[in-house]
Amino acid sequence: MADIHVRRVYDPPEPDDGSRVLVDRLWPRGVSRDRASLTLWLKDIAPGTGLRQWFGHDPARWAEFQNRYIAELQANPQPVKQLLDMVRAGTVTLLYGARDTQHNEAVVLAAYLRNRMDHGA
Fold first, then answer.
1. Out of the domains of life, which is the source (predicted)?
2. Pairing of strands 40-41, 19-22
């Protein structure tokens, strides 16, 4: 099984993080580049601006957000392939800035990547 972690970018790096990838389109407020300790900032895999603004981290829109974001991921294969290659090479931690730890793009992305790995993508 793919070793993919999901953590807030505001949390300190952990020894088992592996490659740390920020998956937000916008840089998180109050976090320095040094403190983020990133391997990569993959803006292109983040939800589009329209989808992000529509969702607004509203849990009532969560199911539809997941569907729309997965459709965006399927239409944007290059950053997905880049992340899948990283996962195949070792542990990857997807970082996000949202306060909500259950309803954010990194949660959807991790599940999407695991599913792709499980089905031989």
1. Bacteria
2. parallel
List the domain boundaries for the chain.
4-31+44-118
What are phi and psi for residue 117, nearest 5 degrees? -65, -40
How far is Cα 27 from Cα 100, in angstroms, rounded to an integer? 17
Could you tell me which of 21, 100, 23 has the C-alpha nearest to residue 55? 100
Number of residues that this document lists for the chain: 121
| pTM exceeds 0.90, yes or no | yes
Q: Which of 73, 90, 92, 80 is nearest to 121 (CA)?
A: 80
Contacts of 28 by beta carbon, 8 Å cutoff, 6+ apart:
9, 10, 22, 36, 97
Cα–Cα dist 15/43, whole Å: 24
Q: Which residues fall within 8 angstroms of residue 9, CB to CB, at 6 or more apart?
A: 22, 24, 28, 31, 36, 95, 96, 97
Residue identified by tokens 């950053």 is: 79
